[in-house]
User: Fold these one by one.
Assistant:
Number 1:
Amino acid sequence: MPANLPPQYHEIERKFREAKSTPEKLACLREMLSVIPKHKGTEKLQGDLKRRISKLQSQLQKSRKLGRRPYGFSVQREGAAQVVLVGPANSGKSSLVKALTRADAEVAQYPFTTTKPMPGMMQFEDIQIQLVDTPPVMPGSLEQWYVQLVMNADALLLVLDVVSPSVLEELEMVRVQLASHKVALGSGAEPEPAPDEERLRLKKALVVGNKIDLEPPREAVELVQELLGETARLFPFSTVGGDLADSLKRAIFELLDLVRVYTKVPGKKPDLDRPFVLRGGSTVLEVAALVHKDFEANLKSARIWGSGAFDGQYVQRDHVVKDKDVIELHL
């Protein structure tokens, strides 16, 4: 019986031949196994792939036992924050990154286009936020470099194809895979953990319901939000037309809970070109520390213009700054 392999199998096989590291090769083999038709004509090929996967897994485990660090990927942090995209195969993560950044992300109609982390810079008003596309999450163990990337991120974007008939199963699969590495999705409010999640690390997350331009059943979208509960917000999105890009950028900014603070020299106009970016809840003293260590050590007073005070009001060192405040520091 002929195998009748689909086109995406041959594309993934090409990437396997070009892969230079064991983790890359292992990911490709797993992807090849997942896309081949399951019938009698492919039984031999399935067995061969499983043997090769087992061999590479053994090699990785052996290298860890010997104390050698297996090859992986890392992404240098840039911009005001780092947001990592996660999701199942063919959910549209690469298209989303391309829509929000200038990154030259590879986008194709077949799954598993992304085989390594791909960063891009998203411009939001006067700051940049780094988005990192990643390979799809699949059933089975996540690579350690992937887990580390997720752990180090300031927030996650879980991208789902809301048109997929298996979207609920895909959502649950991703959550199970993350939970197996002690990671759970959390809203910006950081809710109290449930008893079975006490040892999980909550990561701020926004769930993007992609491909709404294809008019998914309303019940499907409602069921996704119901399954998420209060752990994360569902943001309906489409890369077609670009009308929702600005709204999604703002939603990401708000999820990160960042504040931009501008400084001014007494008697001069404020510098509105390059804000200092801090976490929500930061104080005047923390702004001073970013400006210069002398300001942190010798700050006597500060004046502030913005939403949290009267214009030009003198405030204490522990005054909490708000987004777009202007501060004048005095030694």
Number 2:
Amino acid sequence: MKIKENYSLQELNTFKIDVKSKYFIEIENESDLKEIVKEYKSKGEKILLLGGGSNILFTKDFDGLVVHLITKGIDIVSQDDDSVLIDCKAGEEWDEVVQFAVNNEYYGIENLSLIPGTIGAAPIQNIGAYGAELKDVFYSLDGFYTADLVEKSFSLGESEFGYRDSIFKSELKDKFIITSVKLRLSKEKNFKLNYRDLADLNKLRKNITIKKVRDHIIKVRESKLPNPKVIGNAGSFYKNPEISAKQLTNLIDQNPDLPYFKSPDRKIKLPAGWLIEQCGWKGKREGDVASYHRQALIIINYGNATSQSILNFTQEIKDSVISKFGIELETEVNFY
């Protein structure tokens, strides 16, 4: 294991923000991970586990140790006629896990195709797209507390999943390191095709295959979202706001074309991208920061944006949405 000092993180965060970490190391196995966490915790250093860096905005240099976890492995734990339980090391790329599932006709995560990042980061955010969320197939995860290295497994209930939220994003943020994730996938066809971008697939439901669903979702995502390898971005910058039925009635009175949808828990959600677009931000650029011209929800870095310029730009968006709709947008991206 080789520790690097004053290490640039520009290529390890998809926003391409040029910040540095005091210390940096890549780790390929869990025993080395525990050893390095113990050593640097004893020195009083802060520790940040970094996977794909796809949902993070660095606001300054990181004064501590950044661990880039690249552990690999997807194993079948158990299976029966109806389902299969797979165990994935935290450093596995999320989309590689989806590809593995699709190749084996294991159903449940095909709607989450092409989401960037690692599976170790997926539970933190409870990633979701096109009517599906990680919690729908989550079985458990393993990891350890950074303070004392005590290992623990978290079940679905203990993980306290919410909309782009979990106990690992709130109470246990920077206090618990996820080392592997188990998913329970179905062997029976059980597609979620009610999302409007999947309407064409829904018409072909009788002849649909899991590969066709994945291919279609990849095509939709590529048509709407910029490739973070080409244009700096962290995906959806804001969550879709949840409102009450009364709020919806009042908003529709003033905005008859307002789109909305009901989530499985019967909460009413508004598309944040539409709200931002109505405030005139879609495609707007200030310096090297912009709202993406195909999807206003995506904030992009054209090359030399600083974290402060991104923060200023996104605060202006929040202020205008509050002013026009009386709704405060919550960020989906994590700040460090």
Number 3:
Amino acid sequence: MQYRQMPKGTDKLSALGFGCMRLPTRFGGPSSTAIDKEKAAKLIRGAIDQGINYLDTAWPYHMGASESFLGSSVLPDGYREKVFVATKLPCFMIRKAEAMQSTFDKQLAKLNVDYIDYYLAHSLDGATWAAMKELGIIPFMDKIKAEGKVRHMGFSFHGKKEDFVAIVDAYPWDFVQVQFNIIDEHFQAGIEGIEYAAKKGMGVIVMEPMRGGTLVGKIPAEVRRIYDAADIRRSAADWAFRWIYNNPNVTVVLSGMNTKEQVDENIRVASEAMPNGMSDKELSVINAVKDTYHRLLTVGCTGCAYCMPCPAGIDIPAAFKSLNDYHMFGKAGARFNHLRFAGVSTADGRAHWTSSCINCGKCEKKCPQGILVRETFKKVQKDLETPAIKAVAGIGRALMGKKKDK
């Protein structure tokens, strides 16, 4: 495993970190609380045994179950001493100053730890940072660091570049976590933000390196042809990770891994890919892939599920995945998947089409990508929710003895 030095302090972090937002579940997706504890614990402990020493979680991951799972199933038996634990203050939930301390205390209890190595103000943008400053987050951060309850203070960011610079300048942060991948080179903080943070002596943690799975698995035929024509044969994940590791300002790249095969491949790449290690020919392959994705993507959803739960029962990330699949991979498969997951195989047995939206706008306020969800629903309805598709779904529910639409 390759280790990269944090600019502040003496910590050497594994170049690959384990993101605990998309753990294996018994049913459901990343919004499910039903973590498959045996499978997930075996996976994470196995990764630690192979050299990963940075675990990233947060209050809302798996609808609040991720932190408790780590505390009960991963960190005991000596594993706490092998890793650096990162979690986050859910700023979007904080309405009173005293809630910062009470939430932090609950997180220590859930994780079953005496201190947190890397603590982040979660999902900041300009407005959220202004509200948190008004509530007194700066003296709160100073306090928990002075008490030894937090070793390093940072923030994760989903906002505009100008707000990123202002937040970096507002506090002596140790590190920052930003979204960065071959599609999102200039999105939100982007490469410009990474360079600015590095100049300020901050460590940089990268999230969404595979853009919620968009860059791996079933990839568009045009992208596959570019990779296949390259002189070096690599998987899509290998290419995408190497491009991020090529940046010398990146300290850790987080990956939400679900299988041992993913862990093994990602560790291999993290062990091989050095800063400034890609040739001009390799970078030209990535540039061609970037251009192709930017042309094909319809909606910039990463599947993080921050928008969930929807009051109307709509699975927003699944709907947007189907919309992207419709335009990248073919209409029939995307329509079938949307019909199945929105119209038949729902938790309550009812159909939850995007046309069921009650126009509350809660999802848009919570979306870190700034997606105009309700406007994008119109595209889903046009491409994936035709009267014929709804009729077929109704037949499917009837055959399965499920409920009629509301």
Number 4:
Amino acid sequence: MPDDDNRVLNPESETDAYEYIFSDIVDDEDDGKRLDKWISDNHPGYSRNYIQSLISGQKVTIDDKIITKNSYRIVSGTSVRILIPENEIPDITPWDHPLDIIYEDDDILIVNKPKGMVVHPAPGHFNDTLVNALVFHCKDSLSGINGVYRPGIVHRIDKDTTGSLVVCKNNHAHNSLAQQLKEHSIKRSYRAILCGVIDDDDITVDSNIGRDVRDRMRFAVTDDEHGKEAVTHIHVLNRFKNFTEVECRLETGRTHQIRVHSNHIHHPVLGDPLYGGNLGLKPPMSLEGQCLHAQILGFVHPTTGKYMEFEAPLPEYYNKLTGILNT
């Protein structure tokens, strides 16, 4: 029986249809990296799970040899080829739920996501997510690059974080936005209330983020090789008794980045149930999750090439809270 790592792929004999074929040469600086991590770093529009499914599904070759091990160590100068199968039809139940649409055209959709809404289907949430509502609203007009359960989704925000999210209606738009995310050229500005009073007007947190080894549900600042670069710029807007209102600008977009970095500087996001967002201080009202809002999103339009910027208005609970804190 042939070794999977030594079989040669002949795409012309394959029965699958391929919408995209990527070919990349491994740079010297990437020599020795894990295959799945290298692909993830170079193609951020795809989830890590999706990339691993491509590898195990024999859709990745190195110098024309199929590689099926995610942990395979790549070698500089070799040619990596990634075959992206034609879009699968997602088995997602359309949800007739109103969307707060900030902007829409043939390529993109900007949504103001409410608190409590999960972005894509996952255990416990298969029929009431943003994706379910998007499938109802957009029908078949959503990009299919990031897997069948994430149609149109190029980035996401947490369940209890509110605010602006861009949705891609075709794969051209998806690839363009994914590349801008990779280059850190997309403007993402958040508003948040943090616990405690911050003395400095401006703080930059430049600390890698990785999975918390003590709790797989959490992420943490880490110095090991599994951490990913993460940079957050924090600017103080208002100081209250025991709390600080800030603007957070992201250079990178790691999972829970603002929440992890805020906790790292000992000023966690108010109401954050995962990262100690009370520190013994009770907020003056019920928040039902972290007080964090994705306010501004700016990027180059994938078709027109013009820079566009969108702002999601602050949610009612946030305005009510700052009004109370100001008294």
